[in-house]
Here is the input.
Amino acid sequence: MKLSLLSLFALALPAFSQTTIKDALVKHWKVTGELTIAVAEAMPADDYNFRPNPEEMSFGQLMAHIALADRNACTNASGMPAPALPDPIAAFAKDNKVDVDKPSAVAFQKQIFAFCNTAVSSVTLEQLDKIAGPPARNLTGYEWLWSNFTHTAHHRGQAEVYLRVKNIKPPTYVF
Here is the structure.
C-alpha cells in the first residue's frame, strides 16, 4: 500500500507543476512588455526620428507600430474595448509618415502593455479558441496573442539594431 501511494504521488507531481497555455501567455506578455518598454526608453529623445535608411520606419514610428498592433491583438483576443488613441498616436495611425516623439511613444506603450496584461489575464480558455477579428483576418484568440507576441519580438529586435547603430547597448532580455 505504501509503495502504491508513493508511486501515485510521484506520478501526480508533474501535473501540479504544469503550466497552462494561458499561464504561459500571461507570463510572456508581461515580460515582452517590460523589455519592449525598456528598449523604447533606451533611445534618447533626440534620436526618436532616427532611421537606418529612408525605407525604414523611424525609431518612434516603430515603437508606435508595435503598440498599435498589440492594442488590436489584445482587443480581438479578449473582446475588451481598445484604449483610446492619444492625439500623436492617432495622427501616426492615420498617416504612417507622421513622426512620433519619445514621450508619446513610451506613454502609449506603457498604456497598451498594461491593457494587454489585463486582457491576457482575463481572457478565458473559450476566448482563446474562439474566432475573432475582421473577416479578412479571422484568427482564434490564441492566434491573435501569439502572432502579435512574435510581431512584437520581431520589431523589438529591429529596434535593438537601431540602438546598436547609435552605439547604445540594448537592455538585456530576462526570461
The chain has one domain: 28-43+54-165. Residues 3-17 have pLDDT under 50 and may be disordered. The helical segments are 2-17, 21-42, 59-78, 87-94, 102-122, 125-129, 141-165.
